[in-house]
Amino acid sequence: MNKSYLKILTLIAALLLFSTTSHAAEHYQIDTKGMHASINFKIKHLGYSWLKGRFEKFSGDFSYDAKQPSNSQVSVTIDTASVNSNHAERDKHLRSDEFLDVKKYPTAAFKSQSVTAKADGSLIIKGDFSLHGVKKTIEIHATKVGEGKDPWGGYRAGFSGTTRLKLADYGITYNLGPASTHVDLALEIEGIRQ
Amino acid sequence: MLRNSPQGYGWVSILLHWSIAFALFGLFGLGVWMVELGLYDSWYHKAPALHISLGVVTVIFMLFRYGWRWTNPVPAPVPQPNLLKLAAATVHQLFYFLVLALGISGYMISTAEDDPLLVFNRVAIPAIHFNLNNQADLAGEIHFWLAWSLIIFAGIHAIAALKHHFMNHDATLIRMLTTRPQKEINHE
Q1: Which domain holds residue B69?
Q2: Which chain A residues contact residue B135 at CB under 8 A?
Q3: pLDDT at residue B49 tops 80
Q4: Which of A3, A22, A127, A152 has a Cα at 20 to 30 A from A43?
């Protein structure tokens, strides 16, 4: 066996290895430990301003295949009692049975069914979202913010996603006024490759 | 006749009793009503503010009442079996505890974020930093159950007073309406 033959063999092996790894979806854990992720919501107050809040506790993971986005998937579980709108008495109200009813429904969850890439590179993540005891299919519009090595020997990828929910679809019918029937969710997700 | 004597209650005790009783029933009704108000109700903000203000005033009256009780003679209990005497005394102590606990738990709801408590939009009672997790929720739940306990015991207390008046024909109810010595109170 001459040296050049060995070189070519190694190269082929390396290429094979590379191509298989790059085509398989990589698995990521959402970095909730270092909290490089957030689940935010906004809803209009009387139609005059945006009220913003977020869920402090959640967890999730995703797999991402840059070459074949349809191989990707994501699932997130939210602790509904961790709702925080920066006002204790409002949060108490949001946790009550007039809104999230967190005693009865302590978690909300999203699980993707399909991921499709649009021409501009953004993603449409279709999946089941369960909230307040109701499960519905929703679409999250997501874009990749970036990915790459982190300075500590790991590899990360991050996404932004948004979706809009009609509260009444989930059985939350407290009258917040005609301008406040929908809530916008914005997810900022950074995953650490496992 | 302002002070209590072993023979009966004085006017201060009588007025405190009825004004606080009236206030507590009002606060209960206001509280039950206000939590059901919708966002578009004009009382949505006013009712809780009034509840807080009246609550603070009631607690101040109650604190004065504790002091008044400690510095005044307690009228002799009406003749009845020891078990009922004990029950009556226990319920009275319970009222003192419940009103104070209601005041503290209510205060902890509204000051959960270290905002002062506003009394009639004039006086601000500063918040004490407890830093409890979900303080407003926890204090709210406690406040709710304390309030129901108070109202149920107040109902029992009222029924007992009427039973004393109509069945035992004793001075229990009348001595809370007049300062006449309870020995002179007799009716058929």
Answers
A1: 11-186
A2: 88
A3: yes
A4: A127
Residue A20 pLDDT greater than 60, yes or no: no
**Cβ-defined contact of B136 to A88 (cutoff 8 Å):** yes
**Domains within chain A, CATH numbers bracketed:** 23-193 (2.40.128.110)
Q: Which of A81, A92, A177 sits opposite B140 (nearest CB)?
A: A92
Domain assignment present for B119:
yes
Q: Which residue of B has its CA nearest to A90?
A: B136
Are A64 and A91 in contact by the 8 Å Cβ rule? The answer is no
> Residue B65 sits in a domain of what CATH number?
1.20.950.20
| Average of per-residue pLDDT across B109-133 | 92
By CB atoms closer than 10 A (0-12, 13-18, 19+), residue A159 is buried
The answer to whether the CB of A116 falls within 8 A of the CB of A149 is no
The residue among B181 and A189 whose pLDDT is bigger is A189
**Any domain includes B5:** no
- pLDDT for B107 beyond 60: yes
| φ, ψ of residue A43 in degrees (nearest 5) | -145, 150
Cβ within 8 Å of B, A 165-184: 174-177
Flag if A89 and B110 touch (Cβ within 8 Å). yes
Domain contains B69: yes
Residue B184 has pLDDT above 90, yes or no: no
Given A87, A89, A177, which is nearest B109 (Cβ)?
A89
Q: Look at residue B1 and tell me if it is in a domain.
A: no
